[in-house]
């Protein structure tokens, strides 16, 4: 009797663990659900890539969380998101934290070249700004330069370019890239700082309206004055060119790595190009004439 009871409980236990194992579904590149984080500055290209990926693989769901770049990175370390879009160079302390918490080698997956751009109201007579002027303005109590928020990718990148930190700079804030563009004409003495991706979609009506409502400034560095054009971003001669890259905490080839691989390969690079940005991985076409 005791042996029958023991066998019954053993069978019940095996059934329980079998059911639990069946319930545990691990995602893969063609099915599953994950959350990724991106700064609002890169929302457009991140949205375009995730939408295209989900269209190709209908059994996938990629939730896009819009969060400041620094906070998105912290969420990656805490496994709250699977992938984060980054633009600036991480500090050694941040790299050490990744190694400690994720226990993986950091492998940035570069997929696009974007830029930080400086804008003024349409009525402004100004057409360019120099690096020295930018430094002077960011140390002035006038706070004429307007960023889209603290902890934003634009602020972090400009500070890094100037070899300083955001807490040492003086500036104004209008939350959100789009809001900076829309409200700048009400502040004729201000200079806005936004991501190129906010206004880069060539065939998007909203992007076109935003683009046409302000004036983009050229940036002078040394004896060169350069506009934030695709050609200048491609050869990285525009001083505030930046490379966007993915980081993941996914230790296997799942949905996160599937999205990353897609974004860095030809189909994803075509999406990047249609966003009005420079694809990081350029696919050359060779034509043989006979």
Automatic annotation (TrEMBL):
- Annotated signal sequence range: none
- List keywords of the entry alphabetically: Signal
Short name of one Pfam family for this protein? PBP_like_2
Under what name is this protein listed? Substrate-binding domain-containing protein
Checking Gene3D superfamilies in the record gives: Periplasmic binding protein-like II
Matching SUPFAM superfamilies? Periplasmic binding protein-like II (SSF53850)
Q: Where is the PBP domain?
A: 28-262
Record organism = Chryseobacterium suipulveris
Keyword Nucleus in record: no
């Amino acid at each position: 009797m005791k042996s029958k009871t023991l066998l019954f409980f053993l069978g019940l236990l095996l059934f329980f663990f079998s059911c639990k194992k069946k319930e545990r579904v691990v995602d893969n590149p063609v099915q599953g659900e994950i959350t990724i984080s991106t700064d609002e500055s890169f929302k457009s290209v991140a949205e375009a890539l995730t939408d295209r990926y989900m269209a190709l693989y209908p059994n996938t769901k990629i939730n896009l969380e819009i969060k400041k770049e620094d906070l998105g990175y912290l969420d990656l370390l805490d496994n709250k998101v699977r992938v984060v879009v980054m633009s600036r160079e991480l500090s050694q302390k941040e790299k050490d934290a990744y190694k400690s918490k994720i226990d993986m080698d950091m492998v940035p997956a570069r997929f696009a070249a974007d830029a930080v751009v400086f804008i003024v109201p349409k009525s402004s007579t100004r057409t360019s700004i120099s690096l020295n002027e930018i430094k002077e303005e960011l140390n002035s109590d006038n706070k004429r330069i307007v960023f889209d928020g603290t902890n934003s990718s634009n602020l972090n990148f400009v500070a890094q370019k100037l070899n300083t930190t955001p807490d040492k700079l003086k500036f104004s804030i209008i939350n959100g890239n789009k809001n900076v563009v829309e409200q700048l004409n009400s502040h004729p003495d201000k200079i806005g700082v936004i991501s190129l991706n906010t206004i880069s979609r060539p065939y998007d009506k909203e992007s076109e309206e935003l683009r046409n409502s302000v004036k983009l400034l050229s940036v002078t560095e040394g004896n060169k004055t350069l506009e934030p054009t695709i050609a200048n971003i491609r050869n990285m001669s525009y001083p505030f060119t930046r490379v966007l890259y993915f980081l993941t905490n996914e230790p296997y080839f799942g949905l996160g790595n599937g999205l990353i691989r897609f974004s860095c390969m030809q189909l994803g690079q075509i999406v990047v190009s249609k966003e009005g940005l420079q694809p990081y991985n350029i696919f050359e076409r060779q034509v043989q004439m006979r």
